[in-house]
Amino acid sequence: MGFIGTVGLVLHPERTCAPTVDTVLRWSRGHGAKVLGLAAEVTRIGCEAVPVEAEEMTASADLLISLGGDGTMLRAMRMVSGGHAPVLGVNVGRLGFLAEVDVPDLPAALDAIDDHRFTVETRSGVHARFGSTGHTALNDVVLVRSPGHRTAAVAVHVQDQPFVSYTADAVVVATPTGSTAYSFSAGGPIVSPNAEGLLITPVAPHAAFNRSVFLSSGERLALEVLPHSGGLAVEADGLLAGHVSPGDVVEVTMLPDAARVVRLGRTTFYQRAQRKLRLTGSAEPA
């Protein structure tokens, strides 16, 4: 019996994905599979996928297909956070770090998945709670200086004990997946997606201590906004989640198996890192 009975589509909000959606629809018709899409997205491109809301799609789909770049892939992963459906990333346009296949390879990829010739890679997430709200991210949660406000001053508490304070433009708490995103741009290390923990990296630090810190998955983490800090915005995967002020505390928790990603064995994490981050020169002999 084939693996794929129902496919869910998550589309890039701006790029034209209609030809790639047609590829999925043709494959599905030939294999007796049902195709669901988010109502607003499939209406925008006028395709034949069944329009549903996000909750119905994630509950019914055996496989989610992300058509876009890394932002679309992260959104699909957040949608199925804690659920059963793995996500296949299809790169539409520029090179996507998280994508597994390019558009021409999509029919063969669907054949392989339907024949159970694939593996699933689990990805951890991060949950931030402050005030009465909570937000989940797959890449990172960031406390960032608000325009016109003073620099971010944040104390890092580990296991309910103060450890170090950062004075910086922002403080990034990244998952291993997010280590190659904002944290990497700020000088943080590359962390294998097989690692379990949270990476804390200051952005443009103004204090003597300017190093990243990596915590294990079970350690409690809290970020306290210090009295001399400016007001800070809290972002989750680049989206505004809210604001915090001096005296507020953001509790951060790692989610061990937040999402599942399809891997077809074609490229490794390190090969994708070389391509995306242009690291080939460092491996060339003298």
Folded structure, characterized:
With 286 residues, this protein is of the alpha/beta class. The chain has 2 domains: 133 residues, Probable inorganic polyphosphate/atp-NAD kinase, domain 1 (Rossmann fold, 3-Layer(aba) Sandwich); 132 residues, Probable inorganic polyphosphate/atp-NAD kinase, domain 2 (Tumour Suppressor Smad4). 21% of the residues lie in helices and 39% in strands. It has 7 helices and 18 strands. The strands form 3 sheets. Strands 3-2-1-4-5-6 form a 6-stranded parallel beta sheet, with helices on both faces. The chain is elongated. The protein starts with 5 loop residues before the first strand and ends in a 9-residue tail after the last helix. 42% of the residues are buried. The mean pLDDT is 91.
What's this model, at a glance?
The protein has 286 residues and is an alpha/beta fold. The chain has 2 domains: 6-118 and 264-283, Probable inorganic polyphosphate/atp-NAD kinase, domain 1 (Rossmann fold), CATH 3.40.50; 125-256, Tumour Suppressor Smad4, CATH 2.60.200.30. It contains 7 helices and 18 strands.
